[in-house]
Design brief:
This protein has one domain: Electron Transport, Fmn-binding Protein, Chain A (Pnp Oxidase, Chain A, Roll). The protein is 28% helix and 33% strand. The protein is built from 4 helices and 7 strands, in the order H-E-E-E-E-E-E-H-H-H-E.
């Protein structure tokens, strides 16, 4: 936990600075309003672009994404600029599995992190591996980027 406490503020500083290019290709700051507290919650997250949608994978045990249940407006610090978007969380295992397939097709490097082997066409070779990756995770979709 101590490493994350150091990492998040450091990444937030970097992503807000003129040096954001070192990290902003696949890392952004996501700010959402806490449903109970009403306070802004900002966290750095890795993302993958899938067409007009940004995909984020998170562990279910983390809490920031719970503020996106049912959809919620978010502010992103994306590649050096502030962008408004709509965040939605996918929690059902089949929807998470579909999101993981989209994610590894768009960014095959994520497959090894998720312990998924890709076939020659770039698709997951083993559906059981996709289900195993989906079980402890959620997918956050960021749409309507403005």
């Amino acid at each position: 936990m101590a490493a994350r406490n150091f990492y998040n503020p450091l990444m937030a500083f970097l992503l807000r600075s003129p040096l954001h290019g070192f990290a902003s290709k696949n890392l952004l700051l996501l700010t959402v309003t806490g449903r109970r507290s009403g306070k802004p919650i900002t966290t750095p997250v890795n993302y993958v672009r899938d067409g007009e949608t940004l995909l984020v994978v998170s562990w279910k045990e983390r809490t920031w994404w719970r503020n996106l249940r049912g959809g919620a407006p978010v502010t992103l610090r994306l590649q050096g600029r502030d962008v408004r978007a709509r965040g939605e969380v996918l929690e059902e295992e089949s929807a998470v599995a579909e999101g993981i397939v989209r994610l590894v097709r768009a960014a095959p490097a994520f497959a090894s992190y998720l312990k998924i082997t890709l076939d020659a066409a770039g698709d997951p070779a083993d559906p059981a591996a996709v289900r195993a990756a989906a079980g402890p995770r959620v997918i956050v979709q960021l749409n309507d980027l403005k």
